[in-house]
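Changelog excerpt

This revision adds worked examples to the README so contributors can see how folded entries look when concatenated. The first example is reproduced verbatim below.
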Amino acid sequence: MKRIITLFCFLSAVLCILAQPADYVWTTPGRDASESMPCGGGDIGMNVWVEDGELLFYISRSGAFDEHNTLLKQGRVRVRVDDASLPGEGFRQTLRLRDGYNEVRLGGVTLCLWADVFRPVIHLELEGERAFTCSVAYENWRHADRALRKGEGQQCSYKWAVPKNAVTTRDSVFAGGNSVTFFHRNPARTVFDYVVEQQGMSGVKSRLMNPIGNLVSGGMLWGDNLTFTDTAEGEYAGTDYRAWRFRSVKPERRHEVLIALHIEQTTDVAGWQEGLRQTVASIRTDRDRKATRAWWNAYWQRSFIESDGEGASGTMARNYTLFRYMLGCNAYGAWPTKFNGGLFTFDPVGVDKAQAFTPDYRKWGGGTMTAQNQRLVYWGMLKSGDFDMMPAQFDTYLRMLPNAELRSLLYWGHAGGCFCEQIENFGLPNPAEYGTKRPAGFDPGLEYNAWLEYEWDTVLEFCQMILETYRYAGADIGKYIPLVESSLTFFDEHYRYLASKRGRNALDGEGKLILFPGSGCETYKMANNAASTVAALQTVTRTLIEVKEARGDTATSVWRELLNRIPSVPHRIVDGHETIAPAKTWERINNVETPQLYPVFPWRMYTLTSPDKHRLEVARNTYLHDPDALRFRTHTGWKQDNIWAACLGLTDEAARLTGEKLADGPHRFPAFWGPGYDWTPDHNWGGSGMIGLQEMLLQTEGDKIHILPAWPREWNVRFRLHAPGNTTVDVDYEDGRLRRLQVSPAAREADIVMPDWMQPTR
């Protein structure tokens, strides 16, 4: 028995080693920030590159919103090592994925850059083969007030409707001794005040949540062996900046530079500085390094996908891993990972030479949550087992809930939270999308916008994610249940309200809700019973009932009644084939989305694993024959065709489209995709690729776990993914045979369903 236990422990240790991701390496320096490598942790992201013998990195942190809701970078750091060999003579830059840090070899000096997962601190450690000196500069382009230029409004909430004379106010920077302190303080009036007035909510302003009022964001850079020398002016990528420069006091073999960050809503700058000092006082480098590396080690153990070779499967698996690393860098942010670049945007001229703006720029805003895009960043975290990373998104909606409910009450006099598409981080519609030239008497609750009117069902995807974290991991979701219930209540109340305004009856002749006017995503406008909305309401309501009962709450009658009022998913005949219709009726097509396939994903009502095989046939007909589905098909950006192909068991299609999704992006770092329809790095491009790859490997239906449901027989793969019921599934598939299958808990192995063409090797 001891030998068996010893062998088991040995094999487990070997598998853990195999599961660790490979380092990602460059052997030549970059040209500019567009050739940077990501680094981060906790809620910090850095773009790291070496240019002309200098190490440079941008600093980003979740939640650093300015007065216009731009997500500000915290500055740029430039490091030069004296007496080291020039890059190219022994240069090497490595992303140490296993331990979550960036390592740069410059001749005889090694620089190690990492972010603490558990406190907002950046560590730069320099170690040489002999004593050396170095210079360090903190660079800031907000050293003076900056006017928002034409086109630059896209980085904030004003977009194309920037008020006259709007400026980004300057940062405060103080240097002396061995440190520099820097912070941005939002002025008294922000875009929040503008939006409240624009949207007629001044009467309830004091009751509205405001996350950017009195917000102070910044930090301090210092080093024990540094001394401040001077300031200098410069320009980088078309943007002027001021540098606060330091140099080493004396040569040493080891140097350390620390950057502590702090964000707080306060009118007391001295109090903010005290919060920063507390962060500084909590630092213990050796202890913190050990804890951070342990976190990254465990991160890679909870889930992985690996595939050998230089072909499509190897590239997909590698880029999946690199993308998941970037997601892990905002694991514990107070705000979700942004779809339009996350924490890793760089100088915009590196994306589009016409966008000659500051490093703060990203298209589609900083504090604006484009929900249709955000969802694709988070769905994949269920199967990857990254449940601890999902509250950043869930809590955002929970914070917005009171404001969303006030909208419904103020505008229409009924209950339920109204969450619009293109919503601000304070729960009100984006002011540009809301419309600055609204006709008199237009419904104040609606966005005056051809794309977004009546588009408010995306919140239901996040509601479903919340419920799924309970089904997958037994997560404590009690505080989110009111969000789920309020979101469902809105649809029930609002569509009965609208029907009652049109006529005597609030329901149709079959006692069903009339979801009109509605919207099939942003595409099928003025829709009646859009397939995406119907499937969302059915699935979330049904899952809510199941989860409430599983948690011991039997008070579900109101939700069962709602479920009975939800209409059926509409079908239609296309060229003799029964298909899912985009809606019962619609008046125009405005975009290029395919909501008729939303019952496949995200709502999983019509899939390969569905017990109702007629539904599978109908969904496949939709994918293969619907003229708009065919016309809109591509792998670019937020497109989901690869996911639908995988969910429908269309293996060749899934492999082709997911291969195109997860192919190397246009920049040096292969997971910097985009801009697609949005910006670079395009995280909803990466997220949709991530989901598609997972669905090719593992799908679930009820208690059943289907492995390799849409995986090409000739591709080798090893993976560990998660399934409902606190279940993990380990698979090693090689040369057409299942070499290893391990399910935890072991009792769940009885629920495994393999493809008809494969049986396990025992």
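The second example, added in the same revision:
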Amino acid sequence: MALAEQMSGRPARQRGRADPAPGPATAGDSRLFWAVPIVLLALLVPLNVFAGPLVLTTQRVVLMVAIFPVAMRFISGDYGRIRFIDWAIFLYLLWATLTIGINNPAAVVQYSGSTSLELLGGYLIGRCCIRNIHQFRRMARLFAGLVLLSLPFALYEGITGQSLLLRVYNGLPVVFSAREITTAPRLGLYRAQFTMPTPIHYGLFAALALCLVTVAHQNLWGLAKRLVVGGAIFLCSFLSLSSGAFLAVVFQIGFLAWARMTRGITIRWWILFAIAAVFYTVIEVFSDRSGIMVFLSYATFSAATAFNRVLIFNYGMDNVWANPLFGIGLNDWVRPFWMIHPSVDNFWLLNTMRHGLPSFLLMSVAWLGQIWIVAKRPLTEGSDLYWARRAWLFTIVSMTFTLCTVDVWGPPFVLCFFLFGAGAWLMDAAEPEDAAAAEPVQEGPADRPGRDRTEPPSRRRQTLSRNRRDAAPEESPDDGPEQSSPEAGTTDPPVRRRAPYARPPGDRRPRRG
């Protein structure tokens, strides 16, 4: 994108343009990017094997191999300073280990070890292996490619109710995979599970790729290509027939529509936040239910599911207030006897029930803190970084709401924290012109220590360029014949011809003109 287009806020309209090579302002270390495709590909091969009392999954084996070189370089400071967000996540894991040790001492090693490996491994690989927009786009394209690869399998499963890959994996010797879930048809289709633990996990897996690839490639792909890719991703998420997963798609489309309708309004996101706050206040005042319960009840396909989620939230919060500091650990939660299933379809609520309110506060500091810092980063509207920032924000915010209606574990758990860490580089992202302005100015012949040090860098560069131009030696007459005016008596200065263009060695292109 040209500098004039960046400053004017108009995105480039180049169709099919390849992703440019990283420049000096955006170059990052790509030696560890190999871990990104391996982690994403492991989502499609969920094989498990028993190793004594432990269960080794494909994701855990990959993370054990990749986390050590990534963590060592992270601690050494190769990926910037350790921020308060990183400390909040580390403290969350320590507190979670402490609560399991208090409530379930026999399970502290197995549970805390596997959870820490999946959460910290996914986060650090996203945090350290994606350091610029080029790696971010490569990750988004790979992720979207995996979602599109699942489309024919999901279509077959929606029509027949049979998961081909899970049947193949479970037929292999020694290893086993996720259990194939059979449910009653919805809207005339069976719920697609693909290779995920549940259909809702597959719907979330597909939904998270929507904005991540279509918005991040705003300046690279044409509208038709983005609509085709986005429509296919939309279809994949729909085939899960899960209201919680489809909620992520609804939020992303809503954010895109609001951004389109309010173009040119600087405070448009504050306006959207104010509208949401007003609606929530009205519901709290005039409804017999809380705003959260109204949200949970309407974010479903069926009334029975809505009623069940409201009950889970009410009794789950009773467990939180009864054990606010250390939670209940892995013990069964208190609920009516007729609520047979112990599952809690709310990731944030379940973690608070298990590890207490301090764990919720630490995770909120990390999650909301990074969203706030990235959202406040000054970027030129229409630039590549601007669209990458918007893609990540829309994805993470929609994921935040979706996790209020679903719990994640295994591959989806790793994916969520991987995508969260993949936006950490945006906290320090700077436009190319800003990076150039921050570079120190080299002293020239006329730029000696006697100059005014308080002069702005841009003014100093202009002065330096002018002084060098004035101090340049006069061109010799051998540079080319002079052309004088054909009229006699004219005193116009002679015009010198430009010196021939010096081509670099090996350049065999024909001369222009």
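Reviewer comment on example two: Residues 108-129 form the longest helix (22 residues). The chain has a mean pLDDT of 79.
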